[in-house]
Amino acid sequence: MKVRRMRLTKEDLILDFVVYTTLIFLVIVTLYPFLNTLAVSFNDALDSSKGGIHLWPRKFTLYNYRSLLTRHQIYNAALISVLRTVLSTFFCTFSTAMVAYTLSRKEFVLRKIISFIYVLTMYIDGGLIPTYFLMRNLGLTNNFWVYVLPGLVTAFNLIVIRTYINGLPESLIESARMDGAGEFTIFAKIVLPLCKPVLATIALFVAVANWNSWFDTFLYNSSNPKLSTLQYELMKVLQSANSMTGSLEQALAQAATGSVNTITPRAIRATMTVIVTVPIAVVYPFLQRYFVHGLTLGGLKE
Amino acid sequence: MNTPVTPRLMVEQIPIGKRPFWKTLRQQRVLLFMSVPFVIHVIIFKYVPIWGWTLAFQNYWPGKSFFDQVWVGFDNFKWLFRDPVFYQVLRNTLAMSIIQLVFGMVSSIVLALLINEVRLVFFKKSAQTISYLPHFISWVVAANLVRDALSTDGGIVNELLMSLRIIKEPIMFLGIPKLFWWIIGASHVWKEVGWGAIIYLAAIASVDPNLYEAATIDGAGRLRRIWHITLPSIKPIIVILLIMNMGYLLSSGFEQQYLLQNGRVIDYARVFTIYELDYGIKMMRYSFATAVGIFRSVVSLVLVFGANYLAKRMGQERLL
Questions:
Q1: Using CA atoms, how far apart are residues A296 and B237, in angstroms rounded to an integer?
Q2: Mind listing the pLDDT tens digit for each residue in A256-289?
Q3: Under CATH, domain A63-302 is a member of which superfamily?
Q4: Quick one: closest CA in A to B9, which residue?
Q5: Domain map (residue ranges) of chain A
Q6: Of A51, A278, B56, B132, which one's alpha carbon is 20 to 30 angstroms from that of B38?
Q7: Chain A residues whose beta carbon lies within 8 Å of the beta carbon of residue B318
Q8: CA B189/CA B108 separation, integer angstroms
C-alpha cells in the first residue's frame, strides 16, 4: 500500500477524482429525496407550496404530523401493517424451515415429488383474475388472513433454507436420533437453532416485503377501511394527487384538518411518506449485513 | 436451483428391492405431517388458479355454475389479438423492460467498478450502504419521491434545470407521454443500482489478486487493469445475468407504472397487469382478462426456459 501511495501517477489522481465525485453524486441523489421529504413534512404546508424547501424546513411546524396523527384511520392502518408483518414473518419463517427440514432428509420418500411441486411454482403463474377468484371463493376477500396465508411457503425461500440445512453437519442430527429424538424434536431443538443466520435473513426479507406491500390490500381488501394498511393509505393519497383533478386532493385535505387552507396534499404525502418509511430506515443500519447476506445466499450459490 | 426436475428423477425415488413404499411412508409419518399440509397449501394457492384458466375459454358470467357457462373456444384470444390496445401493452412492457434491463445492468456494473476503486474503507462502506437503501423501500414511497422530484412547484429537477438556464418554465415531466418510459427507467436505476451492484462486487472480489500484481509489474495503470482484468473476469456473470433477465421481460414489475401513471400518459404506461386490472376487475370482462394473463404466463414460461437453455448451452452455471 505504502509503495503504491508514493507512486501516485496522473492517471491515479484523475481516476480517484472521477471515482469520488461520482460516488458522492450518487450518495446525494440517493439521499436528497428522502431528506427533502423529511424537511417538507416538518415545514408549514402553505409555505412549502411556495417552493424552495430543500434539506431543512423554513417555517418549522409539527402541525402536519398533528393533523395526520389525529386521524383514526392512520392508527388502524399502522396496526394492520404491523400485525400482518409480524404474523407473516413468524408463520412464513417457521413453516418454510419445517418443510425445508423434511426436504433435507435424504431418506424421506416424498422428498423429490414435494421439491418438484414447489419448484414448478417458480415457473407457472395463474394470473391475476384466476387468483382473484380463488381468494374470493376461499372467503379471503375482505379478510385479514389474505395478507398472511397465500405466501406462507415460497419455493425460493424453501430452497435457500434447505441448501443451508444440507450444509449442517449430519452427525449432529444422527447423534440426536441415536438418543431417541423424534423428527420434530430434532427439527425444533437442533436444526432450528443452527439455522439462525439464514432464518434471520429470510425473516427480514419477508418482513420488508409485507411492510411494503399495498397491492393485496388494493385488490382484496379495498372495500373494508378497517383492513387498510399504511402503504395503501399512502398509495391512495398519491393516486389522488396523480389524477390531477383536484377535487379528491381537497377532500382529503379537508378531511384531515376540517379546514381547507392549513394543509396541502403535498404536505400530507410528505408526512405519510415519512411515517411509512421510518420503520425501515430505523432498522436498516443495524440489520444491513443481514439484508446483504440475503442476496449472496440466493445469488452466487450454484 | 431452478432445474426443472424431470420425471426420470421421480421414478428413482421408489426404492426397488427394499422395504415397500407404504411401510416406509408409515415410518416417516412425522415428516409427512410436517410437510404435507403445506403441500396442500401450495396446491390450493398456486395450482388451483391454473384451473381458473378455463375462464378464458368461456364467456364467464359470475353466479352461474361451471357447467352452465357458455363455452366460446378461442374467441377471447381472437379478440385479444385484434385489440390494438394489446399491441400497445406489448410494446410498452417490452420497451420498459429493455430500458430497465440495459440501464440497470450498465449502471450497476459501473457502480461496482467505482466502489472497487475506493481505498478509504469508511467511505466505501458508507457509499455502499446508502446505495442500496432505496431497494428496501416500497414503490409507493419511491413513486412519491419521484413525483416530488419532478413536480412543477418546487421539484428539484425543474429547479436545477431552471437555475442552470436550460429551461425557462417548469416542465410537467410526468405529463409527457414520450418521457414516461425514461422516467420509469431512471427511477428503476435510482432504486436498484446499489442492490444490483452487490453481485458484481462479489464477482470482482473473487478475481485472483495475482493477476493485478502481474499487470502492475508489467506497467499497467489502474484503468488498464480494470479494462483488461476486472471486466473480462466478471464477463461470464454479466452474460449470465443478461440472459437470465431476458426470461423476465414480460413479467417484470408493474407497480411503478401503476403508481406513476396518469390519464395523459396512459398510452405509454399501460403494461400487462394494468391491462388485466382495467379489463378484468374494472370492466368485469373476466374471461378476456384471463386470456391476457394466459398469454403473458405462457410467453414468460417459454422465455424463462429459453433463457435457461441458452445459459446452459454457453456452459455457464445457472444463478438462481
A1: 14
A2: 555 444 678 888 899 999 999 999 888 887 887 7
A3: MetI-like (1.10.3720.10)
A4: A112
A5: 63-302
A6: B56
A7: 302
A8: 8
How far is the CA of B316 from the CAs of A24, A36, B241, B303, in angstroms?
36, 45, 11, 18
- Across B160-167, average pLDDT: 90
- pLDDT 10s digits, B245-261: 888 888 878 999 999 99
**How many angstroms separate the CA atoms of A26 and B128, rounded?**
10
Task: Give the three cell numbers for residue B120.
Answer: 478509504
Interface ipTM: 0.87
- pLDDT category at B155 given cuts 50, 70, 90 is confident
Query: Chain A contacts of B5, Cβ < 8 Å?
Result: 112, 115-116, 119
Judge contact between A81 and A231, C-beta under 8 A. Answer: yes
d(CA A193, CA B201) in angstroms, rounded, equals 31
Half-sphere exposure of B189 (CA within 13 A, CB side): 22
Tell me the backbone φ, ψ of residue A227, rounded to 5 degrees. Answer: -105, 10
For residue B141, what is the nearest residue in chain A, using CA coordinates? Answer: A273
Q: Count Cβ–Cβ pairs < 8 Å, chain A vs chain B.
A: 288
The nearest CA of chain B is from the CA of A248 a distance in Å of: 14
Q: Does B109 touch chain A (CB under 8 A)?
A: no
Burial of B183 (0-12, 13-18, 19+ CB in 10 A): buried
Amino acid letter, residue B302: V
What amino acid occupies position B254? F
Taking contacts as CB-CB distances below 8 angstroms, the residues of chain A near B127 are 23, 26-27
Task: Tell me if A238 and B46 make a contact (CB, 8 A cut-off).
Answer: no
Task: Report pTM.
Answer: 0.87
Q: How far is A258 from chain B (nearest CA, A)?
A: 24
**pLDDT tens-digit series, residues A104-122:** 999 899 999 999 999 999 8
Cell numbers representing residue A66 in the block: 398533528
Nearest to A163 by CA among A102, A100, A214: A100
Across the interface, which of A50, A242, A300 has its CB nearest the CB of B262? Answer: A242
B63 pLDDT band, cuts 50/70/90, is: confident
Residue A43, SS3 per DSSP? strand
Q: Which long-range contacts (CB under 8 A, 24 or more apart) does B113-118 make?
A: B113/B200, B113/B204, B113/B226, B113/B230, B113/B231, B114/A19, B114/A22, B114/A23, B115/A23, B115/B197, B115/B201, B116/B201, B116/B204, B116/B230, B117/A15, B117/A16, B117/A19, B117/B222, B117/B226, B118/A19, B118/A20, B118/A23
Measured between CB atoms, which of B14, B42, B297 is closest to A127?
B297
Q: Which structural domains are found in chain B, ordered by start?
A: 7-45 (no CATH), 84-313 (1.10.3720.10)
